[in-house]
Amino acid sequence: MMASTLAAQPCPCGRSSARGAALSLAQCCGRYITPDLATPAPDAASLMRSRYSAYVLRDVPYLLATWHTRTRPIELSLEPGAKWLGLEVRRQHMIGPDSAEVEFVARQRDASGRAHRLQERSRFVLEQGRWFYLDGIIR
Predict the structure, then answer these.
(1) Does residue 2 form part of some domain?
(2) Which residues of 36-47 are buried (b: 16+ CB within 10 A; e: fewer)?
(3) What total of structural domains would you count in the chain?
(4) Residue 62 belongs to some domain of the structure
(5) Structural domain of residue 23, as residue ranges?
(6) DSSP labels for 10-24?
(7) Which pTM value belongs to this model?
(8) Residue 1 lies in a domain
(9) In angstroms, what CA-CA distances link 45 with 31, 62, 72, 97, 101?
(10) Number of other CB atoms surrounding residue 3 within 10 Å
(11) pLDDT tens-digit profile of 8-51?
């Protein structure tokens, strides 16, 4: 994605500044979702937000690269026509020095127009300075 597009586009994760202004994709998740993965997400919640943004942007390589090798699928296909509508982070906490949980609700509309709500408690692990999505419990 071009830098000028990133600068203007609001971040899909919905994060806002301290003043309540929506952050651009470049200011928020876009800095992590790069082909070279040069800037790792600093914490599990930021990784979770960037993964949500990657689903919105349909960035399968980023989703696979940030999925832990123990649980990562060989391939990932996204539902054609699905539209992600919003993200709410409900809770985040460290459960050890190198593990964390983030509970969130994501809203989506499928290709037929039917609305869905995904509530998940996701687990993340920190390895060699990078956070990875491990798995989640759907509620």
Answers:
(1) no
(2) eeeebbebbbbb
(3) 1
(4) yes
(5) 9-138
(6) BPTT--B-TTSPBPB
(7) 0.93
(8) no
(9) 15, 16, 19, 15, 8
(10) 9
(11) 799 999 999 889 899 999 999 999 999 899 999 999 999 999 99
